[in-house]
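Each lists sequence, tokenised fold; shown next:
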Amino acid sequence: MNHLTGRQWIRFTRSWFVVNPPRRSASQVQHPAKYPEDLARSFIEFFTQQDQLVFDPFMGVGSTLLAATEAGRRAVGIELNPKYFELAGQHLGEYASQCTLFNDDAQQTEKLWSQAELEPADFVLTSPPYWDMLANSRGNVFSTHKKRQADGLDVVYSKSDDDLGNLTDYEAFLAQLADVFRQVANCLKDKGYLVIVIQNMRSPEGRMVPLAWDLTRHLSKFLVFKGEKIWCQDNKKLGIWGYPSEFVSNVHHHYCLIFKKP
């Protein structure tokens, strides 16, 4: 699977980890939900070897692809938003030649893969929209969401009708996202691994939506759920949510859900 030492293997298999990314550049901060390359690289180095193919169907500004190519892997990415697609190309720089990039819709994954005559991917690492979470500012404090609005930065991925993050019906969102991953699985080699970075979320009404677990239930119909690693963010600013009348947690972790293709 990889070329790690026993000590490195043991460290990776711990079920939680902390990654505090460096300050993002002016171009990277345009994307409202970028994860750090250090996170991506740790998964890539565990689940792949040199020159193998890594796929991210929700590429964003290219964190997965940059981590993959810097680690000596090849990469494929799909990004719906032309702005983020262009930024990804800029971030990749000289590594872009090791990538196949599509400015298209992840819901067309199988068609794009077939048309490009790509070999099966060895590993998939991605972070899809967390339903419509980005479109909803919660609470009455000056949140990160509201600060981005005030600074004129993007607070949603796009306004496209093809953007799954713009769906308002939760069950429809889950069904369409599951279909994307069904297509992705069909482009993954047998016994290959797929990792999804995602989070349970709070609705504007205050109800916690178990998105990570609902998605796992859907994907377990065609993939084997192998477990999760919890990404802890201990450098995020705490908000005084719910005070003084109701419990509302500061959600400072994401689930890295690990699946295997049979």
Summary: The chain has a mean pLDDT of 90. Residues 174 and 215 are 7 Å apart (CA to CA).
